[in-house]
Structures are given as C-alpha cells and as structure tokens.
Design a protein that fits this description.
The protein is built from ten helices and eight strands. By secondary structure, it is of the alpha/beta class. Helix 7 packs parallel to helix 8. The chain is globular, with a radius of gyration of 18 Å.
C-alpha cells in the first residue's frame, strides 16, 4: 500500500458533532471501498487541505474513507466558538483523542467571532494543535488578528470568492505583508499567477481539480511552485460516503500526475506539510 497523508480541513456548522460520543456510530463497520485510479495518476503521499464533513461523529467518517483510499493519516480541523468554553473543551478533548489515533487535529475559528482576545485564548488552551484560522471573508479579520497570526506563525485560510476577490486579497496582503494567507479556489482567475509571484505570503489550495484542469493551473504553480497545494473540496452531509470521497481523490491524483514531475510531490503533499507543520510520514522498517 502506498503511504499517504490527509490534511482534512473540516469546516462544519458545529463542534458538538465532531466530539460526539455516539458509540453505535463508532462501532458500526465501515463499508467496503475499492479506490479508483487511472493510468498516469500520481501514486505518492497526499495531503488534502480542505474537506467538510457533518454528522454524529466525523472522526468515524474519516476513518472509513482514509484507508480505503490509501490515506493513512489525517489532520482534523474542527470549527469552534472561541466565546464558548464548553465548545473549546470539546475541541481540546478531540485534539487529545486524535493525537493517539489515525489523524492529527487542527482547530479553526469561523466568522466574526474571531477577535484578538479569542485568538489569544485559543492559543493558551489548545495552542499545541493550532496552525491556522479559516474565515469566510477577509473583511471579517480585524487588524490585530493579522498581527497575532504573524507573531504565532499561523496562516489564515479563506475562499477566493467571486468578482472582486482578487482585488480584496491583494489589498489585505498589502496591508499585512508578513501574514500567510491560504486561498481556496476551484479555478484560477486572470491575474492570480502574477499576484502569487509578487506576494511571498500567498498560498494557493486548488480545490477538486481533475486532469483537464492542468493547463489552467500550470502558470500559477510555475509562479510559486513551493506555495500551491491540492484539496479534494468534498463537503456536506454526503461527504462521508466512501465513493463521494474516492472520486475527488482519484481526480486529484490524475491532476497531479499530469504536472511536470518536479512539481508533483510539492503540490501533492510537501507544500502543505511545510505550511501546516505536518511531520513527514515514517516508512516502516522492511
């Protein structure tokens, strides 16, 4: 079996489902899955920088889709309310459980609850597992949060958005030149390659690409070969279904397999590992 790593950015509506104690769900057997591959697909390590799951126990769902798709390690990102100590405690318990399981945990804060005080509190309570902040819009991020993110070496992840998204991103980077921003995009807008070339703090997560997307994305990857990474983009209640996850993984492998060989491993895993602090996978002794 090839060794693979999944960095799963779980951005869901509640943390309670993430740290649920539904024993029946956890004891239920996983459905059988046969991973799909195509000729010329990338066969190495994968880190998935964006997957959204919902349900009574997303960690059980993760465990059911990881191994069948030859993904052996996950970094779990759970949404949390920084103003709710109970939810913070659930996040901490999930982090501790994950440290000994098949995934490694991340934490993320969603929406306008993100303040400097909230971020300081999270770093005090669960800072060991905290690497990034997911927000819906950069306009929701206060200036002092950008400053704290730089001090703590955190990245801020955000969807690129529609019209005007590139201009807003450029403005945010102009005001905060030392911050690291991970932009999630399904298609490369005109001008993205030039922007990522000129902004060393800009990282790109390519969501749900297939082999046909290579020509569009190649100029962006060439502009910053050490700052572009892959994401499945799977989301919603059906994301836990093994076939729902297997298809974008197979498409992602086909996409990466069509890239020039020196770009394949960085896009598949290396760039995300360096940004997110994920350890190198350890090969077993022969």
């Amino acid at each position: 079996m090839r060794w693979a790593v999944l960095v799963a950015l779980l951005v869901g509506p509640t943390l309670a489902g993430c740290a649920g104690d539904d024993d029946a769900v956890r004891r239920a057997p996983c459905p059988e899955v046969t991973p799909t591959t195509t000729a010329g697909s990338y066969g190495g390590v994968l880190l998935d920088t964006r997957v959204q799951l919902t349900g009574p126990d997303v960690t059980k769902a993760l465990s059911c889709v990881l191994e069948p798709n030859e993904v052996t390690k996950a970094v779990l990102v759970a949404p949390m309310d920084p103003n709710d100590s109970f939810r913070t405690e659930l996040a901490y318990r999930e982090a501790v459980r994950g440290e000994e399981g098949s995934y490694l945990p991340f934490l993320t804060v969603v929406g306008s609850d993100l303040t400097r005080a909230a971020l300081d509190r999270i770093l005090r309570e669960v800072g060991l597992f905290f690497r990034g902040v997911w927000v819906e819009r950069l306009s929701e991020v206060p200036a002092d949060v950008y400053e704290r993110a730089v001090d703590a070496d955190l990245f801020i992840a955000v969807p690129l958005g529609g019209a005007g998204g590139l201009a807003k991103l450029e403005a945010a980077l102009g005001r905060n030149p030392k911050v690291k921003i991970l932009v999630e995009a399904t298609r490369p807008p005109e001008g993205l390659a030039d922007l990522v070339r000129s902004q060393p703090g800009l990282f790109i997560s390519i969501e749900a690409p297939d082999a046909g997307a290579v020509d569009g994305w190649l100029p962006v990857i060439q502009a910053a070969p050490d700052r572009v990474m892959w994401a499945s983009g799977v989301g919603g209640a059906s994301a836990a279904a093994p076939d729902a996850y297997g298809r974008p993984v197979a498409n992602g492998r086909a996409f990466i397999g069509r890239l020039p060989r020196p770009m394949q491993e960085p896009v598949a895993a290396g760039n995300a590992r360096r940004l997110m602090g994920v350890p190198e996978p350890v090969e077993p002794d022969a």
